[in-house]
Design a protein that fits this description.
Distance between the termini: 77 Å
Radius of gyration: 38 Å
Largest sheet: 26 strands, antiparallel, barrel
Helix content: under 10%
Length: 764
Amino acid sequence: MPALKILWRCALPPLLSLLLWGQALCAPAPPRQEAWALSADDHMISIADDSIVELSGKVTLRMGEDRLHADFARYFKQTGWIYLSGHVEIYLGQDRLFAREAEFDLHNREGWLTDGRIFMAETNHRLQGESIVRHRDGSYSFRQMKFTACDGETPAWSFTAADGSLEVGGYARLRGASFKAADMPLAYSPYLLVAIKTERQTGFLLPDYFISDKTGLVYTQPFFLAIDPSRDLSLYESYMSERGFMHGLTYRSSAAEDENLWLGFDYLRDRQAINSDLDDRHYGGDNLIRPDKNRYWLRGMYNARLPGAPLWQLRADLDYVSDQYYLRDFKRSLNSLARNNNALYSTFSRELKDLTEDRSSTLLFFREWTRTGLYLSGSYSQNPQLGNGDPLLPHHVPASAQDDTVQRLPELNLYLHQGRLLPGLPLELRASGQAAHMYRREGVRGSRLDISPRLNLPLSGTYGAINAAARLRHTRYYSNGDNSALETRTQSRNAVDMELHGSTEFSRIYAFSGSSSPQTGQSRNTALRHSILPRLTYRYAPNPAGQSENPFYTEYDRLAPLNELVWSVDNLLTSRSEIFTASEEAPRRSYRDLLRLRLEQAYDLNEARRTRDLNLYKRSPWRDILAELTLLPGENISWSSSSYFTPQEKNFTTHSSALHLRYPDLGGFSASLNLYRPLNDYKRQRTYSLTTTRLNADLLLGGGLSAAAYYELPIKGEGGIQGKDEKGLTLTYAHPCFSLSGQVIRDEKDFSFKLWFSLSGLGF
């Protein structure tokens, strides 16, 4: 036993040394720290066997882009620790630190500051406090601090706190926090979490609030939850003094580049109900009621490629509302139709239906090949005025209402895109086919099959081009509805139409000769091109026999006969400018359209031979003359107009025009006019006349102030038609670190006032 102890004592130290030495040989060498370069104006001395260096008088330590400045420094070489005092300035990465005194571990870039100030260039935030600690991960903790994104000793806004922490690119966590405008405290919170990250970050967003006649005082507080890098959820809680509490949420997901999901839902238990049209102060006179206090709106969109079959794509739209007034009542809210459409269009490049249209929900699978496309869909249309999808009971809708809305469940479409029928022949073919099941609660139901091939013969030559086209439409119906007028369950329709189109072009270039030699960088007009494009089109389609006995689902089920000749002439003026540069032998050319004028008119051959109702309507084969004009005299001004002129009455039936002015340093102005006059001929009847004018203006007033206003003024005419009377004004003050806006909107149904602000540098 003593021998073993002696052997253990003698052998163990060499074995351990050998083991450690071997690990040292195999272990990677620690990264070599680059040395700091030290300099001082007054003196630099070494003490404690040259392990400590003291410097004074404009002390500078530099390593790469990092540097430290102070009046005095004591540097410990072995530990990399340094003490600084007097006008301390530290530049580490993008952070700038200033203090009365500081201590720092230069190896790990961590330390503390007394009476310190920090500027973070990446996020443009400023922090000052009695004591600030910088951690090696770049975050900070502090006591008695002020936090802002504004310049100056008295910033426009700031947060003060007894203590807290700051994560670079993340959150500021404040305890005993106050929000100040200049030096005036406006709000206090025992604990506050402020998002300073420009990326998606969980936290409360800036509230939305306004006053409206319909909803009263509205306050909405959103909360944003970042689930993961590809998913987030926004929760909305709204208080409406006239309506109650509305709860809402929006969910977004982007699992892949071509897979996006957006869902939104809002619910309100409304304090108000409309049981009588006479008691409806906002929509009285429309003969509609809203007795149910449960109000909601469900909407969403989805794009994806099918798993395992990436060539097949999926599109889904969801839009369902509780009642006919919902979207109108809350069109000023944070989750209004207009705001939702802006968000949806930016992601899906499509929008939900307009405010006045039926709500539409669709599911679509499709795939496209070189010349063909296959689309399988199902579509549900909701007419909010007809009981919101509930059984048509008297307390839901007026007794005269009938829910005959057509639902296409399902629908199959097949397209053959236009292309050569046979190689070497100019004959082209395109075709479409559709099979759909038509369902509705009231009226005929059944299926419709439609096949429509079209042949084109395009010919072109020196003097112009001609295109001849012929199309066959075969439609078959399989009806199983309750319409007793249908004698059989199967009906069909055959229809043909033909078109002959010819066009040519005349043009001439007018060159301008300069009176002097061009100078470098000078731009001048050198030529003007005038193009005239006449077109002549003949269209013919006989009246399909027996189609009046077929079911009627859409306008396509009643094809009108056609026999007309259409002429049109397009005039185009284009200017050519040349810019002369010293580095290029030939000038650079640019082109700009100055004027576009289109004239078009049709002659109806069927109307010229009409014998029916001549005692009521005289023949008028010459249709309205269409005149479209666009003027672009300069980059800052444009004018466009479209008019229909009736030769028989020698008057305009429809006219619209718009003027646009835009000057970058002043603002912009636009004005539009729309005019509708009564129509009374064999094919068209319009009993009302209406003129509307819309003015828009935005002005840069200077000093950060800007104003934007619009005014839509209807002029009531014949037939009792009243257009939208709406006006709005928005004033905005933009400061380098905040903006404040106020908006007033009044229309024929509502008045609202809204005030909102934003703070720069915060992740709202």
